[in-house]
Amino acid sequence: MTVDVRVLDDPGRAAAELLAERAHAGGHVAICGGSTVGRTFELAASLAPDWSRVELWWGDERAVPPDDELSNYRLARESLLDRLGTTPRAVHRIQGELGAEAAADRYERELDGMTLDLALNGIGADGHTASLFPGAPGLEERDRRAIAAEAGLEPLVPRVTLTPPALAAARSLVYLVTGEGKAEAVRRAFAEEPSGQTPASLVRGRTTIALLDAAAASLLPGFSDS
Fold first, then answer.
1. What residue ranges define each of the domains in the chain, with the CATH number in brackets?
2. Which parts of the chain fold into alpha helices (H)?
C-alpha cells in the first residue's frame, strides 16, 4: 500500500497540526509514547485546546501504574491532557496496573465496535511500531484488537498493544520519526519488501503518512537533503 512520505524541517509540528485538525473534526484518536512525541502533544494542545469531540486511545502501553515514569498515559497527561482547555469526551486509558493480560482483555472489550480516525505511531530503531516487535507472535494476530506483548527492548516491561488489524482499520495512520538513529529502520519500513523483522513495514492504515526529518529519511532511495 502506498505511503505518503513527507520529509520536513519540523515533522513534530506537522504531526501536531494533524492532531489539531482531528481535534476540531472529532472522532477516535490513538496516540503513542516515545521520546519524540512530548513536544508534538504540547503543540497540539496549543493549536487545539478543545478536544471535547475526541475519544482518546493508546496504541500501546507498558504494564505499569498510570503515574509511573514509564507510562505512556503519564506522558500524554503531562504533555497534552493537562494543557487542554477542554478535555476529550472520553479517555480510554490502558489499565497497565492490572497486568498485561488482564489489561489487554479489558482494552479488547472497550475497543469493540470502534474504528480509529487517526493513529499516531512511532518507529523504533529495530523497526518496531506500537509494541509489535520483530518476529513477535502478535504480528500474526488476525482476530483481536488488543493483546499482551513482551518487550523487545529496554525497559523489559510487559506491554499491551493494538494489533495489526486494529491499526489497519484506521482511516489515517501517521508515522512520526526523527533522527539518524532511525534511518535504517525507516529504509526497511518504507523502501523494502514487508517483513516480520521490520514490523513497521507491515502496519498500514487505510491511508498512511510518514512524517520524517532529513536525518531519518537519509537512507531512503533517491533522498537528497541538498
1. 3-212 (3.40.50.1360)
2. 11-25, 37-47, 72-79, 100-111, 164-168, 183-191
Instruction: Name the burial class of residue 76, with classes exposed (0-12), middle (13-18) and buried (19+) by CB atoms within 10 angstroms of its CB.
Output: buried
Over the stretch 103-117, which tens digit does the pLDDT of each residue have?
Answer: 999 999 999 999 999
**Which residues are 129's β-sheet partners?**
132
C-alpha dist (Å) from residue 173 to 83, 119, 147: 24, 5, 19
Residue 182 backbone dihedrals phi, psi, to 5 degrees = -100, 0
The pLDDT tens digits for 120-161 are: 999 999 999 999 999 999 999 999 999 999 887 777 899 999
Task: Say if CB 207 and CB 173 are below 8 A apart.
Answer: yes
